[in-house]
Design brief:
By secondary structure, this protein is α/β, with parallel strands linked by helices. The protein folds into 3 domains: about 15-140, Chitobiase/beta-hexosaminidase domain 2-like (Chitobiase, domain 2, 2-Layer Sandwich); about 145-470, TIM Barrel (Alpha-Beta Barrel); about 510-555 and about 590-685, Alpha-glucuronidase, C-terminal domain (Alpha-d-glucuronidase, C-terminal Domain, Alpha-Beta Complex), CATH 3.90.1330. The chain is about 35% helix and about 10% strand. The chain contains 19 helices and 18 strands. It has helices spanning about 15-20, 35-55, 75-80, 115-130, 180-190, 210-225, 240, 255-270, 295-305, 335-340, 405-410, 425, 460-470, 475-485, 490-510, 570-575, 585-590, 605-625, 635-665; strands spanning about 25-30, 60, 70-75, 95-100, 105-110, 135-140, 145-150, 170, 175, 195, 230-235, 275-280, 315, 355-360, 380-385, 440-445, 550, 590-595. An 8-stranded parallel beta barrel has the order 7-10-11-12-13-14-15-16. α10 links the parallel β13 and β14. The chain is globular. The two termini are about 45 Å apart. It binds beta-D-glucopyranuronic acid.
Length: about 700
């Protein structure tokens, strides 16, 4: 199997399970229009039932038919004409699933078209897992915004993409063939994600040429039947660079008119566009600050242009920082940037501006505390930005299942005004009374059949959908469901994938960066393999502040960057005090000697050594665990994952030795267990017979056994 259907394979149920199902008389679809998600739902049910149960069922559009033993799918409004069922309250995109309705009917009724399609998928995914239990339940999303951001470039490359070229763009234009785009929309809608921003946040203004505007129309037309809307990322300086204006100053009337005009052109092609995503004044991108205007001035310009278009919003990214800092400014703390830039503007943004905040204060590291900005906006609405792309987490060559990480962040209680404020309630809008907020994620699916470059990593997309709908979902049951749908109902398969997945984040953290020091990868460009030495003394500002005696970034008010004070008082007090800071964030908030004792009783440096050995050792178990699945799943995917996990196991050893040796060199404190420098389990190149290789120097040097 190629993996192209992801978790929507609808594998035939084993005969004994199938036998327990009575089948259906027909599928009654309450919308005849082929572009409606309700119609799509009908077709999907027909296809799924054929594959899962082996039954061919006809579609009818007539509610006045004899409905016994049928499936009815549509909106509650369309159904009201023909029924009197009592349905629990539904929110936007919600649905009602009743598998024991009158006359042995199954009712799948959406609050809107999209909800009906979500309901159809829910029902099919239950069937596919052999779950025929009766339900009569309302399903409602935690938040209205459940998006993904693809970072696709017009030339077909993908920023931080590890799964082949873009499915959207090639050679400067939108692709001709929409087949993959439809398949992608199907995957998104099955996990109840309602929009995709199709191009990179480092955007190209050529997106606005006539060919591409028509291309956007085709993308939107392809995704609409799946209930997925599209949005685009904008390049701030487009008026100057693309429109020929002398400036892109957001307070210049001509610039405002230019954005209004181009927006009108965009909406002529895509009338239901969800809006614009803006990355400005960050990492070399121009923005309002370039023109001595505030970030709110910039955001509001787009907001005004979008006002006439229904519920369209501006997603203004809080990821604003300058990486060209002079040496003297290295003392600045990039973790402070978002709050410093945005907090005082809280009252200034137009109602249709939403601030898009990365989950941590820096940049998708293996461990960060939650971004303090999530607790600093009151009036201005926000979405949290996750990263399904494993940019700093092994780039889909290592596997890290991220649902447990997201859950920790979403469960984190910010204690705004001393009251319970778990982040999931902030982003749902409940805590501060926001009407439009929620979630987005960086996603890097490409044209590879695996979608994402590693069959196991696709679980992150599935989990993202599940958690945005219901952030209280349990990561373990999510991965179990995903495994049953993706691989097999076999219990060994489910248990094995679950075990590898649930162990994957702690394992990666152990061998890649502990105690809140961040992922010790090459920070300058690749963000991949070990390079602890690259962390300090550069404008990218992801500091470890490691010297020969001590390590960690002092973010306290007392002696450091003052970052702790950006959190609400109760949380600030916990992080300010080294005694109450949890060990796994110790070096994020404090600078301590390598000999500092953790709550576990170990010193920091011994913890580093032990964790890296532990992590690399545990990574060796992944290919062994996986080997149990030989013959229980298809060979193609078995071999693909086996290869990846074996590579990961090897690279984990490179990580282990590089990081340990680097810090040993710095502090010269020996490992109590005398392992560092012994390069356990490594096969040295000089001990191998090699042909066809040439000798190169190893970077970073500490990755080489001889240093
Ligand atoms: C960083 C990525 C960079 C993105 C940036 C962003 O390395 O490629 O452009 O985030 O989020 O993590 O804008």
């Amino acid at each position: 199997e190629s993996g192209i259907d992801g978790w929507l394979r609808y594998s035939a149920l084993p005969a004994e399970i199938k036998a327990a199902h009575r089948g259906y008389s027909k599928i009654v679809v309450l919308d005849k229009s082929e572009t409606s998600p309700v119609y799509t739902a009908g077709k999907e049910l027909q296809k799924g039932i054929k594959k899962i149960l082996g039954q061919s069922v006809d579609i009818s559009f007539d509610l006045s038919d004899d409905l016994s033993n049928s499936i009815v799918v549509g909106t509650t409004v369309a159904f009201a004409a023909g029924g009197d069922e009592e349905i629990a309250t539904l929110k936007e995109d919600g649905f009602w699933l009743n598998t024991k309705a009158r006359n042995d009917c199954v009712h799948i009724l959406g609050q809107n078209d999209r909800g009906a399609l979500y309901g159809a998928f829910e029902y099919l995914m239950r069937l596919a897992q052999g779950d025929f239990a009766a339900v009569a339940e309302a399903y409602n999303p935690s938040a209205p915004i459940r998006w993904v951001n693809q970072w696709d470039n017009l030339d077909g490359s993908i920023e931080r993409g590890y799964a082949g070229p873009s499915i959207f763009f090639r050679d400067g234009e939108v692709v001709k063939d929409m087949a993959r785009i439809a398949q992608f929309a199907r995957l998104l809608s099955s996990i109840r994600l309602n929009a995709v921003v199709v191009n990179n946040v480092n955007a190209n203004p050529k997106l606005f040429n006539e060919t591409n505007l028509n291309g956007l129309r085709r993308i939107a037309d392809t995704m609409r039947p799946w209930g997925v809307r599209i949005g685009i990322s904008l390049y701030f300086d487009s008026p100057r660079e693309f429109g020929g204006l002398p400036t892109s100053d957001p307070l210049d009337p001509a610039v405002n008119d230019w954005w209004k005009d181009i927006t009108a052109k965009v909406y002529e092609k895509v009338p239901d566009m969800i809006g614009y995503t803006i990355k400005a004044n960050s990492e070399g991108q121009p923005g309002p600050l370039t023109y001595n205007r505030t970030l709110a001035d910039g955001a509001n310009m787009f907001a005004r242009a979008l006002k006439p278009y229904g519920d369209a919003v501006v997603m203004y990214r809080a990821f604003v920082y300058n990486h060209h800092l002079e040496e003297s400014e290295w003392k600045n703390d990039r973790a402070n940037a978002a709050v410093e830039y945005f907090k005082h503007l809280d009252e200034e943004f137009e109602d249709n501006v939403i601030v898009q905040i990365k989950w941590g204060p820096i940049d998708f590291q293996v461990r960060e505390p939650p971004s303090p900005l999530l607790a600093n906006l009151r009036k201005t609405k926000a979405v949290i930005e996750f990263q399904v792309a494993q940019e700093y987490l092994g780039q889909q060559s290592h596997f890290v299942y991220m649902a447990p990480l997201w859950k920790e962040i979403l469960d984190f209680d910010m204690r705004i005004d001393g009251k319970p404020s778990p982040i999931r309630d902030i982003v749902s809008g409940e805590r501060l009374g926001w009407n439009r907020s929620g979630y987005t994620t960086v996603l890097n699916i490409g044209s590879d059949d695996t979608w994402i470059g590693h069959h196991l990593s696709l679980s992150n997309l599935y989990a993202y959908g599940r958690m945005t709908w219901d952030p209280c979902s349990d990561p373990t049951s999510i991965i179990q469901d995903w495994t049953r749908l993706t691989f097999s109902l076999d219990q060994t398969v489910v248990d094995t994938v679950t075990k590898i997945s649930m162990d994957s984040w702690p394992t990666y953290e152990n061998y890649s960066g502990n105690l809140g020091i961040q992922t010790l990868c090459d920070i300058i460009y690749t963000h991949y393999g070990p390079s602890p030495g690259s962390q300090d003394g550069n404008g990218w500002g992801q500091w470890t502040r490691a010297n020969n005696h001590s390590i960690g970034m002092d973010r306290t008010v007392a002696t450091g960057s003052g970052n702790t004070a950006q959190y609400p008082a109760e949380v600030a007090a916990v992080f300010e005090n080294i005694e109450t800071t949890p060990d796994d964030l110790l070096l994020w908030f404090h600078h301590v000697p390598y000999t500092h004792r953790l709550k576990s009783g170990k010193t920091v440096i011994q913890h580093f050594y032990d964790a890296h050995y532990e992590g690399a050792k545990h990574a060796q178990t992944f290919p062994l665990e996986w080997a149990k699945l030989k013959g229980l799943i298809d060979d193609h995917r078995f071999e693909h994952v086996a290869f990846k996990l074996k590579y990961q196991a090897g690279h984990a050893i490179v990580w282990r030795d590089s990081v340990n040796y680097f810090y040993f060199n710095k502090c010269q404190i020996p490992d109590e267990k005398n392992r560092v420098g012994n390069h356990l389990w490594r096969i040295e190149a000089q001990n191998m017979k090699l042909s066809g290789y040439k000798v190169v120097s190893v970077t970073p040097a500490e990755a080489a056994s001889g240093g």
